[in-house]
Amino acid sequence: CGKPVGTVIAIDRLPIYPIEGVTIIGNTDFTTAATLEKLLSAMKGRRADAVVSDMAPNATGVRAMDHENIVQLAYSATRFAVQMSRVGAFLLVKLWDGASTIALERDLMRFYDKVKAVKPMASRSDSAEMFFLARGFKGLQS
């Protein structure tokens, strides 16, 4: 039938094998200004319909520290999504449950109509891994 519409941009700190139809920004850190410049260039002035973040830091084994590190990555993805998404867009962001989970959820609720905590079926039941699915971006108030 119809040809797919839209642009998919993938970013990873590790090399990524080419994927047909995907703009790849590999061997780079999402949190750097240089990566943001590359990402904005690849977006060509368009707004995002979806931002999906599976970012996770290298685990130290210190649960509280690992949690705070992944929360900072989640906020990086959230800041990008809030600045670059179209109204109605969604954000899916990875997290390890911990002390700052409720604060992140509350912050997401400021910008999205619905925020839901989801746990992947592939995740062990005793794992702290979870995601927030934030739907219905409200846009930024001027």
TrEMBL record:
Q: Which Pfam families match?
A: FtsJ
| Record carries keyword Methyltransferase | yes
InterPro entries in the record: RNA_methyltr_RlmE, RNA_MeTrfase_FtsJ_dom, SAM-dependent_MTases_sf
Q: Name one GO cellular component term.
A: mitochondrion
UniProt keyword list: Methyltransferase, rRNA processing, S-adenosyl-L-methionine, Transferase
Annotated Ribosomal RNA methyltransferase FtsJ domain residues: 5-137
A Gene Ontology molecular function term for this protein is: rRNA (uridine-2'-O-)-methyltransferase activity
Which family does the record assign?
Belongs to the class I-like SAM-binding methyltransferase superfamily. RNA methyltransferase RlmE family.
Q: What protein name is recorded for this chain?
A: rRNA methyltransferase 2, mitochondrial
